Amino acid sequence: MIVLGFMQYNLEHVMERKAWTRNELILAINLYCKTQFGRIHQHNPKIIELAKLLGRTPGAVAWKMCNFACIDPSLDRKGASHVSKLDSQIWNEFFNNWEDLAFESEKLLAKLENKDVETLAKEDGAIDFPEGKDSARTVKTRVNQSFFRRMILASYDFKCCITEIAIPELLLASHIIPWSKDKTNRLNPRNGLCLNALHDRAFDAGLITISDSFTIIVSDLVKQRKSSDHEIAFLTKFDGKSIILPRKFQPDANFLAYHRENIFKQ
Questions:
Q1: Is 182 helix (H, G, I), strand (E, B) or coil?
Q2: What sections of 113-208 are H helices per DSSP?
Q3: Does an H or E element contain 186, and which?
Q4: Phi and psi (nearest 5°) for 189?
Q5: pLDDT tens digits, residue range 120-139?
Q6: How far apart are CA 66 and CA 78, in angstroms?
Q7: Which of 12, 197, 209, 218 could covalently link to 239 via disulfide, CB atoms 3.0 to 4.6 Å apart?
């Protein structure tokens, strides 16, 4: 037993000291983006699962994800300080090219799990791939939308930032600047809000917006309607209240300003 324990210790030590490759780092960032704040530890089932796929220990994967927390500019609280040059390089590559790197990371994960990337995206339950032949562009878009949803919901602890509704089937990853208006920031998590279906629709329609101080502003167009309507009351009751901020990937002030200036209806 002593010999086996010693051998296991050395095996784990070697696995943890093994140099990380570009693909492994991309997969670690992928999981970092989709993991709730405070859930980066070696007992997290998702971290254990990725560790097995990579042939590493859960502790090594969690440690690497903590390094990314140290790099993440959206966090005030920093993680581990042993950030390598390659860590920073791949982080910047990922966060400056969301469109391609998010999809690449999902393809890498699908390959490790012996699945096609569409199947992996379907398992989230957020999107529906219709039967038939989709173009490569359409598949990429849907996979990226699924990735964005998982990332935003995890950032907001799977709760609507306005109502605190916590039923996943009723939650949407809402874009602050619409998908069609800013290709560069389509998948930027700081361009996202976790909203329930009604408030998502109201936000997209410009009937509500969010101030620089993260308070909810309801359009006069809503307030002028009959107060007896339950839907209207469910919007106006939150006027002037603060949204619940995510613990990472806080909404970008410039994106919120765009929404107020270009989409919100006074």
A1: coil
A2: 117-122, 136-155, 197-204
A3: none
A4: -65, -20
A5: 777 665 554 444 456 777 88
A6: 8
A7: 218
